[in-house]
Amino acid sequence: MNTLIAPAPGYSKITLLREIYYGFRPNKPNFTPDDYPDLTGKTAIVTGCNTGIGKHSLELLYQKNCNVIGIVRSQSKGDEARDDIVNNNPESKGTITIVSGCDYMDLSKIPAVGLKIKEVLGTKALNIIIHNAGLMAPNNEGTSFQGYEAMFQTNVLGPQLLQHFIDPLFLKNDDTSLKRIVWVSSGAHLLAFNTYGINWEDPLFENSPTKERPNNNVLYGQSKAANIYQAKAWYEENKNICEEIGCVSVSCYPGNLKTDLQRGWGFSMTLAKYLMWDGVYGAYSELYGALSPTLKPQDSGAYIVPFGEIHDPREDIKLGLTNGVAIKLWEFVESKISPYF
């Protein structure tokens, strides 16, 4: 895994600092619920939707009469979020169905989730997928059931494995008026390794003692760089059918937000929250990717930033989208998740 397609170029520290600043002081959203189309008869999947940005995205979709399949770990927490949203939006003609058991820390649990999604979806067309669930750990010690670094497994391996089971349900010439995938990334990709964002020697740190891992910000940044690659690589892997059905696949940095993603970060995050935005703004970013009529299949691989604009990712990662690095990362992940197909 350590042979790169081309040496990674450097990147501008000035640009990096400007993008970090933009995350705290982004432009105002220009695509908000008043601009969203009626979604009657449409079906969406949102992962990690019992709290935070995912719950906001689920609610905004439901308000537009969408049928939403919410993917969570805990049935009780998912049911609580669903009931809260339904009770607050009695005028909606949509539905919310909760599918639980999606614990990305154990890949062996994901095939059953894929089967449940198939059963719930039935003969309905699937229009939107938002890979929102994620982990931003307060330290570098997390290790999955499979023995992999926790954030890479949760943020990268898990969503790609779930997508494997969703693809046959999604890549169909049924309701082609709307076909979108949003892979949730982060401005933290700016902090990732300087080799196209990935530690190619051992991305999962399966061969490294915990004490030899880099700090948690670098590990989180690596997983978020991978999400940017996934948006492009998934499209390239399925380009023919995507062009036929008009599918768009993008990555999205929702914003610097006050959500449960920072749970366990302590006093430093309490202070930082004064600089952050309410979680609903992150949903505006995600739903720009999911619903904006300005996005076309040729925009696949675009990196959406707060609160609904397209910027370039870090220079080396931008190059990685077109020189084969994205596909290399995709194929590496496939090799790790294929035992669970």
UniProtKB/TrEMBL annotation:
Keywords: NADP, Oxidoreductase. Pfam families: adh_short. InterPro entries: NAD(P)-bd_dom_sf, SDR_fam. The keyword NADP applies. It comes from the Eukaryota. GO terms for molecular function: oxidoreductase activity. Belongs to the short-chain dehydrogenases/reductases (SDR) family. This is NAD(P)-binding protein.
